[in-house]
């Protein structure tokens, strides 16, 4: 990767406008796939304070695909619980998810400047990726063959010519404005005060939400001794007055009654937006992250939703640029992501409404209901294991038969990531075997035997792989000696029983076709695999 602020004109496959988390992750994913990328960031340096603070298991799984998951988690507070309190300070619920369906802890707290530094550093490992900081995009025009960007840097004006452009330039996106794409939704009538402190001394190893009919607030511990506080500003209050140093200190003192308040490193007032772009793509230009959707921080899914965007879009761009798929597959990005992003925006907004009861009476009713529900075993697990989090499901786009299956099917959903062993050893997470490619995962013996030579050749042309699951008991005793298979085949040994449990739960789903973004394109009996796999490959080819 080359970096800097030169005024040299650039030519690339994909130009990414914005080098925040979503843009930087996208550039890493594309770089990993061998795509040439120009990343244009108006700021000269990384913002020195966090905006996002939570990174979930799906986002960590995306980082895994280019080798940054562990270093980010090692510098995060992993699997942190969250406690919900009533206005008297009594605990309503202690949410502590322990399951790891996607191979990583579900709720982690991170320090955004650290993440962005690692993402930018990792871009340097890709010779085809160029990062330009201090480079503000001032113009965008597209034609039948590509997109031209006009860019201003300290060294002068230059242009970037790209086959495709992705706007990852935040809530005030220039790219979205250049496309004349409207943001649909609304903005909450009240503001919130966000305060970050350093050298924190409060020993509270959990996030805490204090619901209240007067002033809801929350606090979140962060790595490296930082802590986040957020306070709702009442409608009758002057936001500037609330943000005065003495008033900030008064609000914080509640949490440090017997010790000095830690040093404040940032205090700002924010609106909470609940908006989704009317379209996530126009022609050869696409929107991701905050440029495509804005949501209040009540469920910590803003950045994570952006990671879902780029995970979905990156493999499609890579396939088109490499000539393995037609440009028509890019239409599926909007079809798959826009509805699901809007669902998450709505959910986060509803969570925020729970924080502030209208009156003390409605708070008491809510508290009784909330505590009563937790006495029901299934409902308690639903809350404590965070099963209420919306799970993305693609019913349109690059999926086969999603409209014909029941609600428990994995078609259109993310495939689980259990631990497995291979002939090379292990255990390893399943994605490390699948790679960022199409994978046919067989849960019954010789699952791919019914695939025709023609379909196998088409899968090979896509760089696909067959992953055959075997029970752990045969590990070290059986090895595949076949060398003449038309498609690479890898045997995995199901040491944790995760793949076995999938088959037990849905016996008819003997084989899964998994996309490079780890979402299930199709599931079927082994006897139907040739037809189903052929139908999916046809979506890419035509």
Characterization of this structure:
The structure is a single chain. The protein is an alpha/beta fold and 542 residues long. The protein is built from 15 helices and 26 strands. The strands form five sheets. Strands 1, 2, 3, 8, 9, 10, 11, 17 and 18 form a nine-stranded mixed β-sheet that branches. α1 runs parallel beside α4, α1 packs parallel to α8 and α8 packs antiparallel against α9. The longest helix is centred in the middle third of the chain and has 25 residues. It is globular. The mean pLDDT is 93.
List keywords for this structure.
eight-stranded mixed beta sheet; 542 residues; nine-stranded mixed beta sheet; 26 strands
Write the layout of secondary structure elements.
Blueprint: E1 2-4, E2 10-17, H1 21-32, E3 37-41, E4 54-56, H2 57-64, H3 69-74, E5 82-85, E6 91-95, E7 107-109, H4 112-123, E8 129-133, E9 136-142, E10 147-153, E11 156-167, H5 174-178, E12 183-197, E13 207-210, E14 217-221, E15 227-232, H6 239-242, H7 245-253, E16 264-277, E17 281-282, E18 285-287, E19 293-294, H8 302-321, H9 331-355, H10 360-373, H11 377-384, E20 419-422, E21 425-429, H12 431-434, E22 439-442, H13 453-461, E23 465-471, E24 488-494, H14 498-505, E25 511-514, E26 520-524, H15 529-541
Parallel strand pairs: 1-8, 2-3, 2-11, 3-8, 5-13, 11-18, 22-23, 23-24
Antiparallel strand pairs: 4-7, 5-6, 9-10, 10-11, 12-15, 12-16, 13-14, 14-15, 16-19, 17-18, 20-21, 22-25, 25-26
């Amino acid at each position: 990767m080359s970096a800097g602020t030169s005024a040299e004109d650039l030519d690339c496959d994909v130009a990414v406008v914005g080098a925040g988390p979503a843009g930087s992750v996208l550039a890493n994913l594309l770089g990993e796939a061998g795509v040439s990328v120009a990343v244009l960031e108006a700021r000269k340096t990384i913002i020195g304070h966090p905006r996002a603070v939570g990174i979930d298991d799906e986002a960590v799984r995306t980082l895994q695909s280019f080798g940054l998951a562990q270093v980010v988690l090692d510098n995060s507070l992993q699997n942190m619980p969250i406690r919900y309190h009533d206005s008297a300070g009594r605990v309503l619920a202690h949410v502590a998810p322990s399951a790891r369906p996607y191979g990583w802890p579900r709720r982690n707290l991170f320090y955004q400047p650290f993440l962005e530094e690692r993402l930018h550093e990792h871009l340097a490992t890709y010779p085809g990726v160029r990062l330009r900081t201090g480079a503000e995009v001032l113009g965008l025009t597209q034609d039948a063959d590509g997109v031209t960007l006009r860019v201003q840097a300290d060294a002068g004006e230059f242009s970037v010519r790209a086959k495709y452009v992705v706007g990852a330039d935040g809530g005030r996106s220039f790219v979205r404005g250049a496309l004349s794409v409207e943001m649909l939704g609304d903005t909450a009538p009240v503001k919130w005060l966000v305060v970050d402190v350093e050298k924190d001394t409060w020993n509270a190893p959990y996030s805490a939400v204090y619901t209240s009919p007067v002033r809801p607030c929350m606090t979140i511990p962060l790595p490296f001794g930082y802590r986040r506080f957020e306070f709702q500003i009442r409608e009758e209050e002057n936001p500037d007055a609330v943000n005065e140093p003495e008033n900030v200190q008064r609000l914080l003192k509640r949490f440090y009654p017997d010790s000095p308040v830690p040093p404040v490193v940032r205090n700002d007032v924010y609106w909470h937006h609940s908006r989704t772009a009317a379209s996530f793509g126009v022609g050869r230009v696409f929107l991701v992250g905050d440029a495509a959707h804005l949501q209040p921080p009540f469920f910590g899914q803003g950045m994570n939703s952006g990671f879902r965007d780029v995970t979905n879009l990156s493999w499609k761009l890579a396939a088109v640029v490499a000539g393995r798929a037609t440009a028509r597959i890019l239409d599926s990005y909007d079809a798959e992501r826009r509805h699901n992003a809007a669902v998450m925006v709505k959910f986060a907004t509803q969570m925020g409404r729970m924080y502030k009861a209208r009156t003390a009476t409605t708070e008491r009713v809510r508290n009784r209901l909330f505590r009563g529900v937790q006495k029901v075993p299934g409902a308690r697990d639903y809350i404590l294991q965070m099963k209420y989090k919306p799970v993305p499901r693609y019913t349109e786009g690059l999926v086969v038969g999603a409209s014909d299956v029941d609600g428990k099917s994995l078609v259109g959903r993310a495939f689980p990531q259990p631990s497995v062993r291979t002939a090379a050893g292990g255990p390893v997470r399943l994605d490390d075997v699948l790679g960022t490619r199409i994978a046919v995962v067989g849960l019954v013996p010789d699952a791919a035997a019914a695939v025709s030579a023609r379909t196998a050749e088409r899968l090979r042309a896509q760089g696909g792989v067959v992953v055959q699951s075997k029970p752990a008991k045969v590990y070290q005793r059986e090895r595949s000696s076949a060398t003449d298979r038309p498609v690479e085949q890898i045997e995995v040994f199901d040491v944790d029983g995760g793949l076995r449990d999938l088959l037990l739960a849905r016996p008819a789903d003997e084989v899964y076709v998994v996309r490079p973004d780890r979402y299930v394109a199709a599931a079927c009996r082994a006897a139907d695999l040739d037809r189903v796999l052929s139908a999916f490959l046809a979506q890419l080819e035509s």
